[in-house]
Amino acid sequence: MHSDMETTEKPAQNPKKKRSQSDKIGRLKYNQQLLKQTLSEIEEVKLMLRTIFAGLKGSFNFEKSLLERVACEDEVDREILRFLFEAGSFGLLPKELVAKLEQFKVARHQVSRRILRMNKQLEKEFGEQIAEQRGWHWALTRFSMDAWGTSDVAEKN
Q1: Looking at the DSSP assignment, which residues form a beta bridge with residue 75?
Q2: In terms of domains, do 128 and 146 share one?
Q3: Do the domain assignments include residue 4?
Q4: Is the Cβ–Cβ distance between 70 and 125 less than 8 Å?
Q5: What is the value of pTM for the model shown?
Q6: 99 and 133: one domain?
Q7: Shared-domain flag, residues 65 and 138
């Protein structure tokens, strides 16, 4: 028996071509949706890393270079932290820091703003602050002093 239909025949109707999502809503809007989705996934990964880090915080050894890389944006920030470390637990007034940072032409209120920004960055990443206010003076926290102290001992050896 021979069938009437051959396998090479074309179907009676053409299959419709499906439009892509970018064609339906527009390429720009589609790219914006993808970007939002990617950014939210990145935030989830960062949150997961912070959670893991918080659980393992006791077993980490923090070093000066790590804190500087996270908190400091430029040389002025590094110099502020160096002067605060040299001042010890008593700390320095913002106007004293400005006098020491004369070459950078930094105003007194900018010193405080920079320290607050560094605190915010370190708080976001490690849940710790780099400096604290003791009266009107700024001084490094115990966490920062420990990191600076262990780094200086390692550098001397």
Answers
A1: none
A2: yes
A3: no
A4: yes
A5: 0.67
A6: yes
A7: yes
